[in-house]
Amino acid sequence: MDGSTTFLFNPVAPKEEPKKFAYDFSYWSNDGYIEQNNGYCTADLNHPNGSKYADQAKVYDDLGRGVLNNAWEGYNSTLFAYGQTGSGKSYSVIGYGPNKGIVPLLCEELFQGIEEKKASGDATEFEVRFSMLEIYSEVARDLLGNIGNKKKGLKIREHPKKGFYADGLKTYMVTEYKDIQSKIEEGTLNRSIASTNMNATSSRAHTIVGITLIQKAKNAAGQETAKTSVVNLVDLAGSERVSSTGATGNRLKEGAAINQSLSCLGNCIHALAEKSSGRNTRVPFRDSVLTRLLMNALGGNSKTVMVAAISPADINYEETLSTLRYADRAKQIKTLATINEDPTEKLIRELREENEKLKKSLQSGRFGLSDGKPGMSEDEMALYWMKREEEMKARLTENNRELMQMKQSYEEKLQQAHLQQRVDDNKAKIEEEKKKHPHLANLNFDPLLSGKITHIIKLGKNTIGKSDTDITLFGPSIHDMHAVITRDNNGVISIERCNSDSRILLNGDLVTSEVVLSHCDRIMFGTTQLYVYNNPEEAKKSKETYPEVTYEMAQEEIVNKSGINMDTDDQSLETALLNTDLLEVLPGIDEANSISEELDKCVKFEIMLISPQMVGKLSGRTEVLVKMRNLENKLEFEWPKDVFLNRLYVMKEMYQNYESGEEWDLPKERDPFIEDINTEVRIGNVQVFLQPLAYMVEQKEQLEITDFKGTEVGIMNVEVVPCTETGKEYSENDDVFIDNPTELIGKNLHFIMKIHGCRGLPNKYRDIRCKYRVFLDEEDTVSEIVTSTINPDFNHQKMFSFKPVTQQLVDYLNNGAIMVQVWGKQKVRNSVVHKAEGKNTKQMFQADLLNHANKLANGFRMNGRTVDPDKQSIIVELLLMKKQQSRQQQRLENFKNLITVAEKQNQRSVPVYLIKDLLSASTPEAAEPILAQLSSDDEYGDNNRVSSSSACILL
């Protein structure tokens, strides 16, 4: 950051010019600070970055105070917090400990301002109301209302004056900052419960905190006026999820609705930016719940601030760039805010008039006939009128609610607020018990939600399970009676499972018998319930310093214990990205398998680590894929990480409905456990190295086809043949061989790629074809599909021309390869597939595990053999060496013959052009006429004479 400009450097190409982004403010808060005794972080002027460090007070002064001033004046205001999870947006907005963020500082100053105005004799009546809602998977939930009604959510309705609103969202009157703080904690706790027990991942949910400031006073004419401003503080879902809304072509993309809100927000921002530049563009506010609720904030009556939080870590470069571009587009939007101030009598009168109109329309059954759309069927028309009637009734109810609030005196509202206010004694009691007694505290992907759910461990037995237990947990693989934690009189606390199917991991290890717990132990119940065990008494007695236990630490521990070592000294960017992917996917695989087992879906998931060469790439990093195996019909599919994660969220929704006793199953086309049997799968790859072509040498090879594991699954016959511009292949007599590939630069190159066929492919495939790309191709070259055989003859050939050859192409030929991918569809053995021997998914999992153990005991038997990935490269180099050796041998023979002829002619010099011709002669037949020219040239008949007109070499 330099002033208001942010510079972004590409870690992969550090010599490139940095990308520059200019905003109203650019803050640096990664380092350059020092922590004071009270915990507040302030600039460290001895640090190189100390002069540009922005503390929380600086950010609030620039952004938060302006939002508050807008509220005092009667403007609606909105503050967005956007950015990748972990980049610090919650720190800026909420803060941590003494480093309070924008929200608490704004609320504190708001009530300070109210007290100051009252103390100065201001007769204005102030009213502050608070609300908090969450949007997850296009469902809006009141975080301060009944969180049990999680599926139905709140209806989003439209009001002619105030726009879209969440019907039924509860607002609470608050009289001091600690009331707001209490409500935020209550809402955060409900978010944590939803995230832990309902599979609603918080990093994919948006939170909107609404603060309404109403100022009632009398104007010069003696009329009572109400100045109303709504401040929306929006914590958007992690922006890294935008790129994961399903791979292109994924049929579940439209059904998952995971990132619909963020995608629609991006579309709205794009459209609004174009509109601000003068274009007549439709803004798709109605496409998502989030954009409907924030319509005023984005393009209407609101002053809006956007905080875009970014990470300086090199592994987050792409996400950081995406966030900066998103913010750059957003800053182009222009809104026109107006002061919301009207006489109270006028507001009441308008509400009453509208209510009378609504009542008359409802009584007469005529509510907007002119709005009917032509061409509607009777059923469509009936549904349309039913929705119109419902909207009118909802509007009438909302108007009545507002009328009642306006008529109530401040004292009546205050009395009602005290009745509404939940007693915090229980919460305070739990906080005190946490300091004295052992307890379990939840760990969550979102740090703000960790430690919000607490279970105190009482003396004796503490049962854990789904129902009728001391500690109630929900989620995949959680049994009715899952585990028991025992606390005896001596302070010893142990855990044991209730039955052999109860899955409990203690510090990453499977619990099979009773185990004594120690302070800071990590415990996983089932596949999603992750807790840390805290024992304050033990912590006091021990001299050991305990590290802070985080969700990432616990999950990494589980990954390491599963056999994948993440504790490595390799600090490269590729390793960091791989570890990030593993931590995201591995917990999901356990969860997906548990859901599959409980829903009896006969599908098993496994992790796959794939080198770039195994997926048809010449370079790159190791990728994480997920193998989906249908244990019923034996079909296997490999899913990229993003496809798996998107399907996992649909699986979670299915399980949630299943647990709630609702209709949970989905049709085949939307079922995340089902893959279309006609989906193509990659059978294997072939690397066709192009180094011979760089020397104009044809290549005819029989190459191994290898699968993801590097196992040979067949062979392929291919040719790469240099040719003329007309497609005529060079013969052996055509001397086109070159000594150095750089000789091609500036010339034209033509060659033919031939794929004759494959042999010995696995019998489970059908409809086989090949795909490949050459050099800078953006689309695949595809062979014809061959059916009904595992020995397909493609007889495919295509000519490629490059005019002229560039250095980049020479580098590609010298060091690269054409990656030919073999694709096919899997055969289903039976037209109607039944569950094997009547087994359910759980029994199939057990049988599969037993089968795997037997293979380990007896040694794996594989159809193919493991292929050395460097084998083909070595073969190519040997081919070139043989060609070059043959060429050098021929040159040596040519010079021997030259010397013999010269000695017979008694000549001491030879013209240079004959030497050059001999160097180019690749066969004895080509050398003969050159040598004959030497013996017949009279100019060189005299062994003592050197021509003055021709360059010669003395022998």
Short description:
It is built from 23 helices and 40 strands.
Q: Secondary-structure map with pairings?
A:
Elements: E1 5-8, E2 19-22, E3 33-35, E4 41-43, H1 56-73, E5 77-83, H2 89-93, E6 95-96, E7 99-100, H3 102-119, E8 125-136, E9 139-142, E10 155-159, E11 163-167, E12 172-174, H4 177-197, E13 205-218, E14 224-235, H5 253-256, H6 260-276, H7 289-293, H8 295-299, E15 303-309, H9 317-330, E16 341-343, H10 344-364, H11 378-407, H12 410-420, H13 425-436, E17 439-442, E18 454-456, E19 460-465, E20 471-472, E21 483-487, E22 493-497, E23 504-506, E24 509-510, E25 515-516, E26 522-525, E27 529-534, H14 536-541, H15 551-561, H16 573-599, E28 603-610, E29 623-630, E30 636-640, H17 641-659, E31 681-689, H18 691-694, E32 699-706, E33 712-722, E34 749-759, E35 765-772, E36 781-782, E37 793-802, H19 807-815, E38 817-826, H20 841-858, H21 871-905, E39 909-911, H22 912-920, H23 924-936, E40 952-954
Parallel strand pairs: 5-14, 5-15, 19-20
Antiparallel strand pairs: 1-2, 3-4, 6-7, 8-9, 8-12, 8-13, 10-11, 13-14, 14-16, 17-18, 17-27, 19-21, 21-22, 22-25, 23-24, 23-26, 26-27, 28-29, 29-30, 31-38, 32-33, 33-34, 34-37, 35-36, 35-38, 39-40
Helix pairs in contact: 1-3, 10-11, 15-16, 16-17, 21-23
Describe this structure in words.
The protein has 955 residues and is of the alpha+beta class. Strands 5, 8, 9, 12, 13, 14, 15 and 16 form an 8-stranded mixed beta sheet that branches. A 6-stranded antiparallel beta sheet has the order 18-17-27-26-23-24, with helices on one face. It has a 5-stranded mixed beta sheet with strand order 20-19-21-22-25, with no helix packed on it. Helix 16 (573-599) packs parallel to helix 17 (641-659).
